Amino acid sequence: MASQFKGVQNAVCAGICACLSSVAGKLMFTGEQEKSPVGLLCDQLSTTLPLSGEQLYQIFRLLSFVLNIILTVFMMGFSAQAMLHLSTLTATVINVSANFVLTAALGWLIFNEHLSMQWMIGAQIIMLGVFLIIRGESGDNQTQKKKSV
Fold first, then answer.
1. pTM for the complete prediction?
2. How far, in Å, CA of 48 to CA of 81, rounded?
3. DSSP conformation class of 47
4. What sections of the protein cross the membrane (predicted)?
5. What angle separates helix 53-85 from helix 2-28, to the nearest 10 degrees?
6. Is 5 exposed, middle or buried (0-12, 13-18, 19+ CB in 10 A)?
7. Distance between CA atoms of 75 and 91, rounded to whole angstroms?
8. Are 97 and 15 in contact (CB under 8 A)?
9. What is d(CA 26, CA 107) in angstroms, rounded to the nearest whole number?
10. Which residues lie below 8 Å from residue 12, measured CB to CB, with a gap of 6+?
11. Which residues contact 133 (CB under 8 A, 6 or more apart)?
């Protein structure tokens, strides 16, 4: 049971890293500097720093790129660890579900993206599916233990 919990924990961490990686990627390619919140922040910071807003914006984009790569590497590591403790299917479903829900939530919070009622219902169905998969795998583990005794 502790091994399964560790697997779920690693799969969720993989989903979080994947989500944050996608946010970093979106920040890296936010479009025109003048219209983006990051561009406005860089322009404000340029009044106190010896760099122009454009230079700060390019530095921010470079840091977002590096962060994107680092988070992707962490995501792969957590995903591999999850697959040591769970079936590949379960680890992947938990990873993708956590990524899906958190990416949408951060998209809504950071980028003001619209989430429809249809999306909300779909997210609930995904979470129910994850619950059923984890519960089914837990039941399979208990059945295997009884057979081996």
1. 0.76
2. 44
3. T
4. 59-80, 92-111
5. 160
6. exposed
7. 12
8. yes
9. 10
10. 94, 95, 98
11. 89, 90, 93, 94
DSSP string of 76-110, one letter each residue: HHHHHHHHHHS-HHHHHHHHHHHHHHHHHHHHHHH
Token reading at 72: 């992707």
Rg (CA), the chain: 20
Pick from 120, 133, 137: which is nearest to 93 by CA?
133
Do 74 and 19 contact (CB within 8 A), yes or no? no
pLDDT digit of tens for each residue in the chain (149 aa)? 678 889 999 999 999 999 999 999 888 877 665 566 777 777 888 888 888 878 888 888 899 999 999 999 999 999 999 999 988 888 988 898 899 889 888 888 888 888 899 988 988 898 888 888 877 776 665 555 555 55
Q: Which residue has the tokens 């479903």?
A: 93
Answer yes or no: are the C-beta atoms of 91 and 76 closer than 8 Å. no
